[in-house]
Amino acid sequence: MFSQFDTDMMSRAIDLAKRGVYTTAPNPNVGCVITQGDDIVGEGFHFRAGEPHAEVFALRAAGEKANGAIAYVTLEPCSHFGRTPPCADALIAANVSRVVCAMVDPNPNVAGRGIQRLRDAGIQVDVGLLQPQAEALNPGFIKVMKTGMPYVQLKLAASLDGRTALANGKSQWITGPEARADVQVFRAKAGAVLSTSQTVLDDNPSLNVRWEQFPLDVQADYDIKTLRQPIRVILDTDAKVKIDAQLFSLDGEVLLVTATPQAVSLGDDVEVIQVNRQGNGLDLSATLRALASKGINHIWVEAGATLAGSLLNADLVDELIVYQAPKLMGQDARALANFGGLTAMEQVPSFDLTDVCQIGNDVRLRMKKQ
Ligand SMILES: NC(=O)c1ccc[n+]([C@@H]2O[C@H](COP(=O)([O-])OP(=O)(O)OC[C@H]3O[C@@H](n4cnc5c(N)ncnc54)[C@H](OP(=O)(O)O)[C@@H]3O)[C@@H](O)[C@H]2O)c1
């Protein structure tokens, strides 16, 4: 069904979609290429929620040449009126002859209706080209649409002996500057950076994105002044965090999740959401669901061993990202994740290793839930 040319054009559309990784949240990253014969006549990608979709930019660039053309899109063209009109209608109006899409849109408002609309208009539609690569563009969007829960990446910086802080709580810095710069890139791609009252009290972290520290090629591609800050989410069951914490003095939104909203005194700029207690803290499933309902599809967690253990124990981590430093912190230093009581290897949380690389003097391991 698909030729090498089709594959090359969809690869190009996927590359275009990646240009939106720092800007489109909560919308998905989408790219589009329009071809006439062997020539690309239009290209586009979705840049920001509320702005035109990839197909519209590509159709504008193609102009009259869209007539009879093939459109390659990384996600099924939308069929509903959101903040912009349906892209399926725009492709029909432009009189394209064929649409190739990498995947069906998991958004229940679309879910095959865009494809049907195109087919009903007599346009050939072929679906599934480079689907795994297209899915990898939007893990958060896809997970929320299918389950109502966000995609959770848990980051931990650990020593060679798997320790994440000294016994007295000090952990700055286990890893080197290159690993910490790499963390900035992950933060920037997430809808929210999530941490805890304990880490705020211990470390007074900023948890923001320092765009000016980004690699120069990224800085060249974007006007960094226009880039968004991910929302910083702090779990604070009993409202212990005080307004003098550094994170409140920096650009970007902060959202506090607490069981005791009446005890929060952080001023009107900090949004507060209430979640019930569970065990020694907050109900984490309810917390994640509440964040997804606020349009936060993809969460980057930076916290200590206690929250890491709770998230792992509750099976709420999709991806584990461990930066491991060639240092030894000793047996009294804090663990990677606090949980226990396991008695059989079948109970051990296990991951598939998806990537290993050296970053400066540290190793980065990426692992996905099995
Ligand atoms: N190595 C790293 O990558 C890294 C990253 C960040 C921090 N750290 C270090 O980690 C240390 C803090 O670690 P920590 O283990 O003491 O604390 P933590 O894991 O950062 O936070 C634990 C706190 O989160 C809150 N929480 C709310 N709901 C929870 C739930 N369901 N399960 C677990 N926690 C919940 C609780 O505080 P409330 O009851 O107040 O809500 C709890 O005490 C700091 O010293 C910091 O330096 C290391």
Largest sheet, described in full?
Answer: 9 strands, mixed
Q: Identify the quaternary structure here.
A: single chain
Would you report the number of β strands? 16
CATH topology of the largest domain: Dihydrofolate Reductase, subunit A
Q: Which stretches are low in confidence, meaning pLDDT under 50 for 5 or more residues running?
A: none
Tell me what the CATH architecture of the largest domain is. 3-Layer(aba) Sandwich
Average pLDDT number: 94
SSE order, one letter for each helix or strand: HEEHEHEHEHHEHEHHEEEEEHEHEEE
What is the rounded Rg? 23 Å
Distance between the termini: 32 Å
Strand content: 15-25%
Report the principal-axis shape. Answer: elongated
Alpha plus pi helix count? 11
Alpha-beta classification: alpha/beta
| Distinct bound molecules | NADP nicotinamide-adenine-dinucleotide phosphate
How many domains? The number is 2
Family: In the C-terminal section; belongs to the HTP reductase family. In the N-terminal section; belongs to the cytidine and deoxycytidylate deaminase family.
Pathway: Cofactor biosynthesis; riboflavin biosynthesis; 5-amino-6-(D-ribitylamino)uracil from GTP: step 3/4; Cofactor biosynthesis; riboflavin biosynthesis; 5-amino-6-(D-ribitylamino)uracil from GTP: step 2/4
Catalytic activity: 5-amino-6-(5-phospho-D-ribitylamino)uracil + NADP(+) = 5-amino-6-(5-phospho-D-ribosylamino)uracil + NADPH + H(+); 2,5-diamino-6-hydroxy-4-(5-phosphoribosylamino)-pyrimidine + H2O + H(+) = 5-amino-6-(5-phospho-D-ribosylamino)uracil + NH4(+)
Function: Converts 2,5-diamino-6-(ribosylamino)-4(3h)-pyrimidinone 5'-phosphate into 5-amino-6-(ribosylamino)-2,4(1h,3h)-pyrimidinedione 5'-phosphate.
